[in-house]
Write a structure and sequence with these properties.
The chain is mostly helical and about 140 residues long. The chain has 6 helices and no strands. It is globular.
Length: about 140
């Protein structure tokens, strides 16, 4: 990967770490909105929200740490899997909002959020140096 892509990758890691770090803090400090969108089939929603906050914080720390690329890759994989696992809560949030009579964010908020989920998964894997797609590394054969 050339220097320009390396700089973008570093910036993406920092942005994701900031995003997931903030989300983790919100999950721990203000859990009620997250508990409210947890699907009914999820047992122990309060504990699930607390654990997701902790996972986000550890993922953010692992992604941003400069010392061990293996830990950075593990954090990236963990955050990508996390994004897959919380997708049911995002769907549930959309369904809850769409069923309410009072004003809600609506599809203008929820559809882009849903469409953005695969990008977040890819970005975590790319920023964490798990994948190079769509860029080719200069050190890897074509």
């Amino acid at each position: 990967m050339n220097g320009a892509h390396a700089g973008v990758r570093t910036a993406a890691r920092a942005a994701l770490a900031l995003f997931y770090g903030a989300a983790g803090l919100f999950h721990l400090a203000l859990p009620a909105p997250f508990i409210a969108i947890t699907p009914l089939w999820a047992m122990w929603p309060q504990e699930v929200v607390m654990l997701t906050g902790i996972a986000e914080l550890f993922g953010a720390m692992g992604l941003i740490q400069p010392f061990d690329p293996r830990l950075r890759r593990a954090a990236a994989i963990g955050l990508a899997l996390y994004a897959v696992c919380v997708f049911p809560a995002n769907i549930n949030h959309m369904l809850i909002d769409m069923a309410r009579a009072e004003p809600n964010p609506g599809l203008a908020y929820h559809i882009p959020r849903m469409a953005f989920q695969p990008f977040i998964i890819w970005l975590a894997l790319w920023a964490g140096e798990v994948i190079d797609w769509p860029y080719r590394s200069a050190t890897k054969p074509r």
